[in-house]
Amino acid sequence: MSAQVYPYLSFECAKSAIEYYTEVFFATKQYRKQITEAQAEGFGLPVDKLEDTTIHGGFTIAGVDIMCADAIMDAPQTSSRVSILLDFGTDEITEAKNLFDHVAQSQTGRVIFPISKQSFGGGLGQLVDKYGITWMFRIDPDK
């Protein structure tokens, strides 16, 4: 058996989150499907402003596909337990540092520690975005 694993994130407004990740993380391949009127009625949601809702969406950051949706049934809970590792090869050090620096300079989150050499021989940096998601930027010397 073989399966793919994808981060699946819930947001109060996934449409805004997709816009944020496009601007701050240079996300590509964005897609979004809004909630239909029938779905809204089934979930007990108001049917006005459906154009701002997302039943399923996604984007790609540094080659990592991430899926998302509105947290329809409950308010999304911010958790420091959600981490996404972006694993770069040594030939991508400049790209990794540029992306990390761009996110850090956006001032929409906080840097835990900048990308620096680690005992395992590669590099690692960590930051938390405005949604409370921890992003780990790893430079893998064996990749």
From TrEMBL:
Residues annotated as domain PhnB-like: 7-135
Keyword Oxidoreductase appears in the UniProt entry: yes
Thylakoid is among the record's keywords: no
UniProt entry keywords in alphabetical sequence: Dioxygenase, Oxidoreductase
SUPFAM superfamilies (alphabetical): Glyoxalase/Bleomycin resistance protein/Dihydroxybiphenyl dioxygenase
Pfam families: 3-dmu-9_3-mt
GO MF entries: dioxygenase activity
Highest rank taxon of the organism: Bacteria
Protein name: Glyoxalase/bleomycin resistance/extradiol dioxygenase family protein
Organism: Paucilactobacillus nenjiangensis
